[in-house]
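The protein record filed below.
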Amino acid sequence: MKFRVQRDVLAEAVAWAARSLPARPPVPVLAGLMLDAREGAGLVLSSFDYEVSARVEIAADITDPGVALVSGRLLADISRSLPDRPVEIATDGAKVVVTCGSSRFTLLTLPVEDYPSLPEMPGASGSLRGDAFAVAVAQVATAAGRDDTLPVLTGVRLEIEGEKITMAATDRYRLAVRDLAWTPEQTGLSAVALVPARTLSETAKSLSGADKVTVALASSTGTSGEGLVGFEGAGRRTTSRLLDGEFPKYRSLLPAESASVATVETAALVESVRRVALVAERNTPIRLGFSAGELTLEAGSGDEAQASESLDASLDGDDISIAFNPGYLLDGLGALDATYAELRFTAATRPAVIAGKESGDATADDTYRYLLMPVRLSG
């Protein structure tokens, strides 16, 4: 095998394909990155750890076709550090030689015959723009759990119904739901999948520049058992095994009506929460008091450091005082991507719903909703 490729093209492709390689692989070959130089075609780089696969094809000047398996993380480190000159990669017996200008690296190869075959991409279910996909996933994945002992809560639930996808994630303390339009491959399509949030986030971010991202589900039976989901765009392809288990029935958590609705400028609220939360110890809540025309934020009490700040806010309904984990509150506000935040309350002990709106008197955009559990204050 021998080929020449541009340094930036190689570095980006290797970094993308190697991003999901396990830090401690159960077998050595799973730390490998497959290089497949094809005559008359391009260079295909791929990785697979039995859960997530990644495949990317790039342009390369191929002299001798062939395949080689090398350490993915080592090749990524080397590619990133090379000078800005063309890179030549060639096999030399049981080694791979990387040459770039006066730089030369020799890597040991791993046994190609022991490497597992990549799973086939499922049939296409539909498509959407890469930038819209990336924004939607980022808004929802922030609420996914990070406790691997509760794997169901580490996923993002995808619900496909006709020309709409609904994404939902929860860690039991907050819930994020996002609706977005897409183009299904067939009419009347209905499917459900539970995708690991970390994999989905990394994939969506890497495909944000694609004009079209194809989403493919191995099964559209409505179950999330041992199926696969695939994403493809801009020459990149990822598959992931779906999570198994019963996702919480989240729709019943979203209140049908509110006793109070407040509107606050998003950027101003974010900055105030950050400042006031400086005195909040770990897991200590920040208190929000809403009254006509004003929002008061407070943190700390008694002999502790204290902070308070007031903001302009409109309130429709009863005055309310409620407390939240400041980090969770900032996650929701940061995901809004709207000039104003609308906060809906039913009671100080019940979850609040946050949505975005473009002006103070506009109707809130309910395509994204962030539900946040309040923190009960002692006394």
Remarks:
- Helices lie at 7-18, 72-81, 130-141, 197-206, 266-276, 326-334.
- The chain is about 15% helix and 40% strand.
- The first helix runs from residue 7 to 18.
